[in-house]
Amino acid sequence: MKSIFTLVASMFFVANSFAQDDNNFLREKGVIDLYPFYHGVASGDPLDDAVILWTRVTDDTLTADSVLVNWRVGTDTTMSTIVTSGFGYAKASKDWTFKVDATGLQPGTWYYYDFEALGENSIMGRTRTAPVGDIDSLRFGVVSCSSYEHGYFGAYRHLMDRNDIDCILHLGDYIYEYEVGGYSNNISGRTYEPTNEIITLEDYRIRHSHYKLDQDLRKLHQQYPFIVVWDDHESADNSYHDGASNHDPGTEGLWTDRLGASGQAYHEWLPIRSPQPGNIQIYRSFEFGDLINLPMIDTRIEGRDEQISSQADANDPTRTMLGAVQYAWLTNNLGNSTKQWNIVGNQVMIAPLEAFGNPVNYDQWDGYAYERGQLLNFVDTNVTNFIVLTGDIHTSWVNDIPNSGYDASSCTSSSGVEFVVTSVTSPGFDIGVGSSVIQAANSHIHYVDLSKKGYGVLDVNKMRTQFDFYYLNDAEDVNTGQYHGASYYVNDGEHCANEASGPSSRPGPFPIFAPQPEEADPSSVPELKTPSFVVLGAYPNPANDKVTFQLYADQTTPINIQVFDMLGRKVFEDLMTNVHIGVNYAQFEINDLEKGTYQFVISNGMYKVTKSIIKY
Questions:
Q1: I need a surface site. Which of 255, 264, 585, 614 has the fewest CB within 10 A?
Q2: Measuring CA to CA, which residue among 477, 469, 476, 478 is closest to residue 450?
Q3: DSSP letters for 148-180
Q4: What is this structure's pTM?
Q5: Could you tell me where in the chain the CATH 2.60.40.380 domains are found?
Q6: Cβ pair 37, 608 in contact under 8 A
Q7: Which region, left, alpha or beta, applies to residue 95 given φ > 0 means left and ψ of -120 to 50 means alpha?
Q8: CATH architecture of 138-499
């Protein structure tokens, strides 16, 4: 049996051929104390009386295909007043993830929640329901495009620390599908797992697990509800309904299989209110009192035709970005809205972007110009205070959304305003010209930055909606600082953007953060199981050519792996000597094994785990 150990830390481990700062390892120290909820907790899709709660249960000793999970929601961090509780099961068929729709809650209220399984409590999470009635203001953190190999998630860290926002909007590219080095800044120790381009259900599950072990992402999920929508990289680059530019059916199988796998893993690993099994529909809408109507649309998978390369094709009336069903849903949602602001969560830029008289990128709405025109005509007639939030392009923009007859000087024929948030880490979009050239050729563009990374804050009140751009000093620096870059607003009843004199703010008091593990009172927390390592996952199982083990270690003691067949014969043994504190990966090629069930016995002399793997 041939063995290949691929040892890569979730965030900060690196193989023998690289050097690594010990501080990077320490950022993951203490995660093992989260047993058996190593991936933390999360919440999402807030309604005025309900919110989705999420976690994942991981235990080396489980032999059943499900485990009981208890959950509860309280009004403070002491959990002295429980307002609702219940139980359910984390199942192997859902990769041991667990979601529940916690109902019966009060509107506009901060809550705290936790889970219990296998006799242990999770860390506490904090969430908030949507408000009802007369609402003065709301604030959202806005993010997109977090490529793991292009930097650290400092944007998530700074956003978490603010404590002056109500909800996080993630506009897509939450994960990326590439292989190690395939789309990368080659930062030592900051590498993808699995190492291959992800294609199968097991691949996508590992990648989501890998991301969720990032401390900055885990802590942001812990403190705020998320509203998420996918873009293309949750499946494959430049995806559309029937395929993707980064998918080759000849070598990577049917697109429908890959899309189904990516969609299933997405719904398993994110706190989203999922549809019926087998349906991966993601477009949906939210309401926040009388202030905001928030439809979240899917411009990738639901109905998009394949991208084209000419303006003539873009004007084809039969081509669609949304698909007929979603287009009807969106126009019905917007047309019937009674809210003051209609804000659309979108992926690709809706405002035109031209250079030298030609569209720059047919992957965005410029490639579906006819449908865009139809939508904007509908908006002009039926919708007030129309705003579009966009990600995807890894750069920052503030655009009027021009319709036929647009004039920038008089703000004539602008359908609304678009705020485009930059990426968390992903590299800037190479347009080939500078920002001054872009603005000269596109009079509707008020602001553009082509390089900086960071996040946005959307501040909405009855007088105006403002978007603040915050940038990182250096996304490749694990301890990077941040600064305010620019702010723009649109007034109630107007359709064009204006530059603000400074960032928006919210007066306190602010809600108490859910405590971090190290902040918990030891006298109130039951003693935790702290094995010296834990197997977080073994993928795929059954397996044919290779199997990958994801292990978390809290010490550097070498780990021995033995493999036994069903007759008890040892067919392989090896020693992992390069073990680091944090997440490690061991990958085995099993092509030479006969079909059957094998026992992988993993031990460091103090703790032993046995995992059954089926070779087919």
A1: 614
A2: 469
A3: GGG---HHHHHHHHH---SEEEE-S-SS--PPT
A4: 0.89
A5: 38-127
A6: no
A7: left
A8: 4-Layer Sandwich (3.60)
Q: What residues form DSSP beta bridges with 359?
A: 354
Instruction: Give the integer Cα–Cα distance in Å for 103 and 595.
Output: 47
Residues of the chain with CATH 2.60.40.3080: 3-29+530-615
Residue 242 CA to residue 232 CA, distance in Å, equals 13
Quote the CA–CA distance of 309 and 329 in Å, as a whole number. Answer: 28
**C-alpha dihedral (361, 365, 368, 373), degrees to nearest 10:** -130
Beta carbons of 297 and 346 less than 8 angstroms apart: yes
Q: Which residue has the tokens 């804000």?
A: 343
User: How open is the CA angle 257-263-269, to the nearest 5 degrees?
Assistant: 135
Distance CA 273, CA 451 (A): 34
In terms of residues, how long is the chain? 616
**Close Cβ partners of 496 (under 8 Å, ≥ 6 residues apart):** 400, 408, 411, 414, 417, 490
Closest CA to 42 of 167, 191, 173, 177: 167
Tens of pLDDT along 124-164? Answer: 999 999 999 999 999 999 999 999 999 999 999 999 999 99
Which fold would CATH assign to domain 38-127?
Immunoglobulin-like (2.60.40)
Paired tokens of 193: 């797992």
| 615, 601 contact by CB (below 8 A) | no
Q: How far apart are CA 44 and CA 272, in angstroms?
A: 6
User: Do 12 and 25 meet the contact criterion of CB atoms below 8 Å apart?
Assistant: yes
DSSP result, 355-384: ETTEES-TTSGGGGHHHHHHHHHHHHHH-S
- Condensed to tens digits (0 to 9), the pLDDT of residues 208-249 reads 999 999 999 999 999 999 999 999 999 999 999 999 999 999
- Could you check whether the bond before residue 225 is cis, i.e. omega within 30 degrees of 0? no
Cα distance between residue 147 and residue 192, in whole Å: 9
CATH number belonging to domain 3-29+530-615? 2.60.40.3080
Reported as a single tens digit per residue, the pLDDT across 500-559 is 999 999 998 999 999 987 644 434 433 444 567 888 888 888 888 888 888 888 888 899
**CA atoms lying within 13 Å on the CB side of residue 219:** 22
For residues 503 and 483, give the distance between their C-alpha atoms in angstroms, rounded to a whole number. Answer: 11
The closest alpha carbon to 119, from 537, 609, 529, belongs to 529
Distance CA 454, CA 341 (A): 25
Question: What tokens does 286 get?
Answer: 């939210």
CB atoms closer than 10 angstroms to residue 111: 24
The boundaries of every CATH 3.60.21.70 domain in the chain are 138-499
How is 317-366 classified by DSSP, letter by letter? TT--SS-HHHHHHHHHHHHT--SSEEEEE-SS--S--EETTEES-TTSGG
